[in-house]
Amino acid sequence: MLPSSDTLVMRRRIRQLLLACVAVTALGLSGCATLQDEGRRNYTTAISAQGPATPLDGVSRASMTGAEPGASGFRFLLGPSGLDVRLFLLRGTQRSLDLQYYQLRDDATGRLVLRELRNAAQRGVRVRLLLDDLYTDGLEPLLGGLGEYPNVEIRLFNPFPTRGSVSKRFAAALLDFNRINHRMHNKLFIADGVLAVTGGRNLGDEYFMRSTLSNFFDFDMLAAGPVVAQMASLFDEYWNAEQVRTAPSVLRPADPPDVLRRAFDARVDGVGTLDPMPFHGLDRLGLAPVVDELIAGRVSMVYGSAQAFADSPAKAWGELETGRLPSGALLDNSRRLLIAEFESAKREVWLASPYLVPGPEALRGARNSARRGVRIGLITNSLAATDEPVVHTGYRRYRDDLLRAGVEIFELHPNLGQRLLLPGEVANTSLGLHSKAAVIDRERLVIGSVNFDPRSEALNTEFGVFIHSPELAAKALGLLELLKREASYQVRLKQGKQRDLEWVWMDKRNGMEVVDDEPGADLWTRTKLYIQSLLIPESLL
């Protein structure tokens, strides 16, 4: 079974909060801690690419040579190359670094990123780091130490009023559950305002094939051109939002700055924070390592028109704000934007989402699209490939209805994912799906942080990019085809049945294999899932 991913752990912590609420209520405690005043906060925005050119300015210009006016450039980052590229950008930037993440882990990858942020700040680079506060427990010493370096500022989205253990923080927020149940799930990385990385990955070992226990199949993209300015303006919307607090006002470190810096240095400069081995060879798209091209000064990119979008930060307070920023970026409900894109399809939609709970509206939309002759395919995790089966119950409620509507469904096999590994990646680990992407009519691509589930729709803020590029869409579809062919079951209705299912996959030795019962679901699992499905609202899945 896979260890928790970002979304699955969040759901577990929300349930911990509910249990803490019950405990606090039983004890007659108030649970009414409130955030302290943060004092004065500076309003800052992205630094434009003016003044002396930086090396990354040159890479961006060279990589956009030949693009049509108004087009942006993109390059897929697969497996470990996503970390290699981030490290190159961290070390090569000379003007600014803006990072926005749902989770930054205290592991080799997370500490490596923090170390390079410090090093960049010492070179005179302005560093802005924006994190959701859900996963900062235990990370406070690192954040406090980094924040004491000149040129670094750290802010926290929708922070908890109390520090300490998970249970303590949740219990203290008993009367503020509606607020803290909303989280910032966005992921964004912008270097010198001219190159950006976006997708669904957090900053941790398992997102870059570095974990010895389990890893995620995921991909993101390096971007250049006008879309980077759109991304930067969305970052600024969050950075300066009312829902954000400066880290010192939340963490309230007790030690003097020099002590915090020394403790930080000891953690990030140790033997446990070594550089990964650079990836060599061709990736799954048959392309050479992106870092080699960055070093050479020009990245081979695919061009297309692009639209960056995000939920408004106000979604964290249950408010809906929509609009278009001067950069052209959209603020709107991410799920609504996705559904509108899917409904515009004329021929075909393929969606990859690790946590897939369609809901009645999406089910109706799938039926209507199928009646119009649109082919719809879904790729998600199987029950056997996730450590949080209760999340699967929301998806299972819709699965047979989707199949009857004509939707094709593929679920990641827990073991066949090994076929997706390349030399140099950690072998003998389980592999789960974490990609969040969609391909429409083989012309348009959506990539970002958005899961197709109730949390993304109503509770989490999300970020993504719509891209119109048949060439890029074909590459993305090739990756999804790889998932289907090499590592997935196809889920089908049994012949002549309306609800009974079967799971089919191709075994390279024995040919087609068919399983009649849901893989990973013994009697105890089925019983537990049935009980949990009655008790846990779909809105929390």
TrEMBL record:
Domain PLD phosphodiesterase: 180-207, 429-456
Pfam families linked to this entry: PLDc_2 (PF13091)
CDD domains reported in the protein's UniProt record: PLDc_ymdC_like_1, PLDc_ymdC_like_2
InterPro entries hit by this protein: PLD-like_dom, PLipase_D/transphosphatidylase
Alphabetized PROSITE patterns for the sequence: PLD
Top-level taxonomic group: Bacteria
SUPFAM superfamilies: Phospholipase D/nuclease (SSF56024)
Name of the protein described by the UniProt record: Phospholipase D family protein
Organism taxonomic ancestry: Bacteria, Pseudomonadati, Pseudomonadota, Betaproteobacteria, Burkholderiales
